[in-house]
């Protein structure tokens, strides 16, 4: 079952899309770039690197924040190759996967690397799915096929997943969201600066239908259909609004909504108009739900009209394009190159294919990521690092408490509830307590069929969740992932093993460096619990208003200033497009609060009472560590995509715009009104 629904449903990650560089950490301020930290901290720290760093041809971005990803990929590659060779992992502890699971890992990777077999098979692994689509003649056929394709791992006109109920997070509910687009976002279908992408997308669709033996003219019809779908899509700002997107309704209400615009003549053969969603549910193997969460209700209420106004032949062609896109990377060279030439070159700006082994690592990780993670942790996780990070987390939480207590804009009643939520935070570090059991995942004879089996395995997991209480031990990132996240539905912060290494955390480094790096990351994730959306959930993960009207209004006034600050930023590479301050608000609050509280936690760790106790040189190390995390170079195509759809601000401004709001930065570097980084005291935003 597809997990990628609306932004508010997903854990709030520290990073958006990432690349895979290796860079050396820099914390001493001697970058060799003639730029004052009072005018541009980002370039003062990273200037020499920005001048000399080159983005590899098979990468869309090259950044310090992905400093460990290549290492993690290489380590996982080694694990997979040993699994192919039947290695027994001698000397490892009992937490490693059993021989059957290792066999599955190795076989999947070996099948992916067997290009000779993939060339021999051609498109034959898709035949049964394409035949199923060819048989679609009615709306009932369509919904039956949409449900069946969900089991195969193919996305449809809407997405579905199982999540905790935001109004009762102890239970799981089936959740529905808009989908159906081949471009990254609805804005790609309407914004003038994406005209070139649209032209290339139509060319891509023509190539797809030629490969599939269909009429290239089908491309125009499919593109026009997606344009209609896009008109009913919510924009990215509305999609991250927890209040707007969490709509609890009965299953019968959703069924009625979906067919509300459907011509009665198209309902022939149905016992009831609402049976269309029942056909989908039965075909996808899901149990009958009493209640569901719907993210974008009017998308579903327009769905019947949209489908009724589209020739069934067009919908069949659209489904064929979906099947192709879902499995192109697992097919022969022609299929992969067709897919890559658009999604890799045009959308991401890549100049060359990633090496096949890397694509294989990513594929196997997408199917059996936690089984791989179990081996990864047994080999590479440093338990000493975990203990040190736990102390940093403790200092961060204590510093957040003191900061909340000292707020002058929040009433005592709301402070008590904020502290109650803070006390209920759950912290997960390194790896899950309970590993995912892959014994029921069945390998098939071919690569595509095995991928489909993996999708069915996930559907089964989702189905089982609906009959059980929420599993509080579940992780949404594997241990080998270089990232971190906050999950509002569980009020938890999670730090996978792979991020707890230099340059983010270094057991040999000064505390000032560690607090400016991993401390700010931890603070960022805690801060998501109190950002514009996370603050709508209480300590148990319940979506409810625990604020007084007065306090919420005061919070809104502060966040509005932050929205205005970022909305005024127009990156020089963005062709006149500005940062979306509303879209990026949650991440900007996380960055600002995270660095601010990390500074306070650093003072606590050193038993410093205030700035008078701190050496400016040490303080500068703290901010240098912050700046080096954000060094990044991106291809224009990739940067344009992120500017349109990513809730994170561009990395340069995650560095500079945050510190401009901190009194401690201005003190450390002794800024003055003539300095470019100067921000008048009255314009600085301090929330937490």
Structure overview:
The chain has helices at residues 41-52, 69-84, 99-113, 115-121, 127-134, 139-152, 195-211, 218-232, 236-239, 242-245, 251-258, 275-284, 297-301, 303-308, 312-327, 333-347, 356-380, 383-405, 412-423, 447-465, 511-528, 549-567, 585-605, 616-629, 636-645, 651-660, 663-669; strands at residues 12-13, 61-63, 158-165, 168-178, 247-250, 291-294, 426-430, 485-487, 492-496, 632-634. Among the domains are: 25-67 and 390-428 and 510-683, Collagenase (Catalytic Domain); 124-330, Neutral endopeptidase, domain 2. Residues 1-10, 17-32 and 90-94 have low confidence and may be disordered. The chain has a 4-stranded mixed sheet, covered by helices on one side. It has a 4-stranded mixed sheet with strand order 3-4-6-5. β3 (158-165) and β4 (168-178) form a beta hairpin. The protein is globular. It is built from 27 helices and 10 strands. The protein is 51% helix and 7% strand. It holds the Pfam family Peptidase_M13_N. Belongs to the peptidase M13 family. Residues 37-432 form the Peptidase M13 N-terminal domain.
